[in-house]
Amino acid sequence: MKPRESMCAAVRAQLPSTGASAELPNPLASHAAECLRCQAEVTRSRRIRRSLAELADVRVPAPAGLAAAVEGAIDLPVTPEGHRIRQGTTVAAAAGALAAAAGTLVVIGWMRARSAA
Amino acid sequence: MPVDEVRHDEGELVARATAGDRRAFSELVRLHQDEVYTLAVRLTGDRELGADVAQESFVRAWRAMPQFRSEARFSTWMYRITVNTAGTHRARARRQRAESLDQLVVEPPDAGQTPERAAESLDLGMRLVAALDSLPRSQRMVVVLKDVYGWTHREIAEHLDVSVPATKVRLHRARSALRSALWGEER
Predict the structure, then answer these.
(1) pLDDT (tens digit per residue) in B148-179
(2) pTM here?
(3) What CATH code is assigned to B112-183?
(4) Domain residue spans of chain B
(5) Pick from A3, A65, B9, B29: most CB atoms within 10 A?
(6) Which CATH number fits domain B3-88: 1.10.1740.10, 3.40.50.970, 1.10.10.60, 1.20.1740.10?
(7) Sequence-ordered alpha helix ranges (H) in chain A
(8) Rounded Cα gap, residues B40 and A64, in angstroms
(9) How far is the alpha carbon of B134 from chain A, nearest alpha carbon, in Å?
């Protein structure tokens, strides 16, 4: 490996261990200042660090039932919100079952009518 | 509501919860569930597993409330419990990469950015989250705590029950893996 290439390899090896701004120690910093390839690597490292830091401000909203589940786990009577979630689920399930039954009846009726014809 | 007022209210809730008031604790859960869940999802790389970790963390917190020291911030305390819970929670089978992309909630682009720059940033953010989720759990936890949440190596080592040099090695590997995942192996 040529001296220049070995310096580039050393820069790549060192970058994951650098601080938040990906500052290299000398003589790697001096090399990177002259080497476009290494400058690109430093830029990539900084972009990754910046993007990771930005993730701290990106919230993933908790699922709707999390608080109710915690309340249930600590033996707290389920809150009205929890009841609403459960009631909503029950109503949706009942409506789905009714719709399925009605659909089945329609299909059976259609098949009977067709076989009679 | 001003921030000081919120903190004052939270202080009251914490005091009541410490004294055994379940409803006060429930209010604290509602105030902090998003941030705890976000941390849990980042640490586990899995939305469903993150929900389990968040729930278990709040239950552990409830049991430990009598030991809570009022000089600490409740959110900081919850973060530590969440990290400990995630560290001990049994890992589930990794889901599809598409699911990890689906779970990303990205803030609106900066108004000062050009559309091209905003799209590039969004693309990098999505690929980064997918790459994070694909890391081995031990590496992901270290890079999330260090580079996303700004913990020190000592804090990470204490909470993950590993040595400081071990956290540095894991961080190095995690960052190298992220770089390779985003831009490919350097030839």
Answers:
(1) 999 999 999 999 889 999 999 999 999 999 99
(2) 0.72
(3) 1.10.10.10
(4) 3-88, 112-183
(5) B29
(6) 1.10.1740.10
(7) 3-14, 28-34, 36-55, 66-73, 80-116
(8) 16
(9) 15
